[in-house]
Amino acid sequence: MKKLFAVMMACMLMVALAACGSAGSNIEKPAVSELSVTETPVAEVESEQETEERTSWADTSEATTEPETESEDTAATELVVYFSWSGNTETVAMEIQNQTGADSFRLVPVEPYTDDYDALLNIAQEEQRNGARPAISGSIENFDSYEVVYLGFPIWWGDMPMILYSFLDDYDLSGKTIVPFVTSGGSGFSNTISTIESMEPNAEVLDGLSLGSSQTDNPGDAVVSWLSGLGLAE
Q1: Per-domain boundaries in the chain
Q2: Cα–Cα distance for residue pair 97/39, rounded to 1 Å
Q3: How far apart are the first and last CA of the chain?
Q4: What is the DSSP string of 16-74?
Q5: How far is 21 from 18, CA to CA, in rounded Å?
Q6: Alpha carbon distance 82, 101 (integer Å)
Q7: Separation of alpha carbons 77 and 101, rounded Å
Q8: Cα–Cα distance between 135 and 87 in angstroms, integer?
Q9: Predicted confidence (pLDDT) at residue 14 exceeds the cutoff of 80
Q10: d(CA 17, CA 35)
């Protein structure tokens, strides 16, 4: 009888121990499982945010570069062509270019002029007597694309330097608008406007700008006033 009771007690003890072990296992597993479930959504949310940030940055970057590309593709339709020996005409030409956004081309003779003023006077007078056409160094690319040509030069012996005649012979300005500007010791345009009109009969010649040598140091105001009266602004 005692043996039977002892066996029964041993069986009950084993069942009780098994139940306790099973209860401990059920506590640990949910803890591990919740940690795993919590980490996975956080990682996914962070990944989506990073993707959105990269997409947003890419869209902003592309929108910023588009106007720059359009600006680079925009070509000037105005051109400043000028000859300058002393630098006075060049100062005015650069002021016109700065205010209009035009391209520019300096007429440079293949055979340079002397730096000596007195010797230059003799050369200029001889060129006029002979109807010389000094060769121009370089050429103007895509000249046909320009609609307005600002044409600048000093007055030599009451006329344009002969390299201007070379330019008007070499390039066809038909259909273009010519806007002359000169620097001089006080003689103004002399007869150069009528000369330009006769050499380019199919071009429109607008009122020009004439500045004395003393005005070329700071021509900004004069250029602004002149340009505003031409009616060329869009």
Answers
A1: 20-74, 76-228
A2: 65
A3: 121
A4: HHHHHHHHHHHHHHHHHHHHHHHHHHHHHHHHHHHHHHHHHHHHHHHHHHHHHHHHHHP
A5: 5
A6: 16
A7: 9
A8: 20
A9: no
A10: 29
How many angstroms separate the CA atoms of 79 and 173, rounded? 12
Q: pLDDT by residue (tens digit) across 76-103? A: 899 999 999 999 999 999 999 999 999 9
* CB-side neighbour CA atoms (13 Å) of 16: 6
Q: 199: how many CB neighbours lie within 10 A of its CB?
A: 16
- Tokens standing for residue 146: 């320009």
| CB contact at 8 A, 181 and 208 | yes
pTM of the predicted protein model = 0.69
Q: What is the CATH number of domain 76-228?
A: 3.40.50.360
The tokens describing 31, both together, are: 């803890």
CA-nearest of 139, 152, 221 to 180 is 152
Residue 162 · residue 128 · CB < 8 Å = yes
